[in-house]
Design goal:
Elements lengths: L10 H27 L6 E6 L7 E4 L1 H4 L4 E6 H6 L8 H7 L6 E7 L4 E7 L4
Parallel strand pairs: 1-4
Antiparallel strand pairs: 1-3, 2-3, 4-5
């Protein structure tokens, strides 16, 4: 699996993901910080899915927040346990992973598109 930003991320996804990400970026940034501070993982991953999925803990319910995407908090080790990232892909993922203080690692999960996307946090 390619862990870099996918150039095929078309406007259909980019617009709705960006809008929802902007609405919840502070919540995601805080969750990312807590995952790292508590030594749960150095590699937080936030799953954006239109339906509930068994990939981590529900962080933002889209229905309650008036969003299109549910947000789940997860991390690299859980993705490895669940077989989404194979043991042979751990090093490549870690090498590609961007500074979690500046970028959010999203795993976008939809019928037509499933991939990792690194999105910069909005500047204050």
């Amino acid at each position: 699996m390619d862990y870099a930003n996918d150039p095929e991320l078309n406007g259909k996804y980019l617009g709705t993901i960006t809008k929802d990400f902007a609405a919840v970026s502070d919540t995601i940034m805080e969750a990312s910080s807590q995952v790292r501070k508590m030594d749960i993982s150095k590699y937080p991953i936030f799953v954006f899915a239109r339906q509930e999925v068994p990939l981590g803990s529900l962080l933002v319910n889209a229905d309650d927040a008036g969003l299109e995407w549910h947000v789940f908090a997860s991390f690299l080790e859980l993705f490895v346990q669940q077989g989404i990232i194979g043991a042979e892909g751990i090093e490549a993922f870690q090498h590609t992973y961007k500074d979690p203080n500046e970028f959010c690692c999203l795993f976008v999960l939809d019928e037509e598109f499933t991939n990792f996307v690194f999105v910069p946090y909005p500047e204050d």
